[in-house]
Specification:
This protein is mostly beta strands. The chain contains no helices and 10 strands. The relative contact order is 0.19.
Length: 204
């Protein structure tokens, strides 16, 4: 998160137009800083589970999205190749701080075949992806439902005929929240409505 700059005025009193000789060239001081590390669902920017079939709450409640054979018990093992998938309201982003923040996301592929394009969107506005087309505006105390978008239209998954297991693809998702409003993205509120005119965002 971008650091907030704090400015403080320092008054200097000079008697009789003269300044004392107690000047110094440099100083180094050590102070104690107390930082509380909270579980993810209790953090200032909290990520919470909304769809238990897609989201796992791991250590310290850190969420992990898994779209694999654990989705259901009816035989589905993941997304199909040459397709686009949207999953509404997968997890929540809650602002438990004291200032309005603007949330974006980006993805880094860690394992698997390149060509798959993931994304996050607000509510049902999958046409506006966080960090690519839009930024999410979350006021203190608000929670936004975030969905997951997967574009595998350029991927032809090869199956292992012996084990009937498809390829897996893994990504690291980075969610950033800053107090400075982005100038080049559409702003969406926690319900997926455009902030500038109040109209509903594009529906699925």
């Amino acid at each position: 998160m971008r650091r907030r700059t704090l400015l403080a005025s320092l008054g200097v009193a000079a008697a009789g137009g003269a300044i004392g000789t107690g000047a110094f060239t440099s100083v180094e001081a050590t102070r104690t800083v107390d930082v509380a590390i909270a579980d993810e669902n209790k953090a200032l920017l909290a990520l919470t589970e909304m769809d238990p079939q897609l989201v796992n709450q791991g250590t310290r409640n850190r969420i992990q999205i898994s779209i694999d054979e654990a989705i259901n018990e009816n035989g589905g093992q993941g997304v199909g190749s040459r397709s686009e998938y949207v999953f509404d309201k997968v997890f929540g982003i809650r602002n438990q701080g004291t200032q309005t923040v603007y949330v974006e996301s980006e993805f880094t592929e860690t394992d698997g075949q390149s060509g798959i394009s993931p994304g996050f969107y607000v509510a049902t506005t999958d046409d506006l992806l966080l960090g690519t087309d839009a930024a999410l505006v979350v006021d203190p105390g608000q929670t936004a439902a975030v969905g997951s978008y997967l574009d595998v239209s350029d991927v032809d998954v090869k199956y292992d005929d012996e084990f009937s297991v498809s390829r897996e693809f893994n990504f690291d998702a980075t969610i950033t929240a800053e107090e400075e409003e982005p100038s080049d993205l559409t702003l969406l509120d926690h319900e997926g409505k455009k902030v500038d005119d109040g109209e509903d965002g594009p529906a699925v």
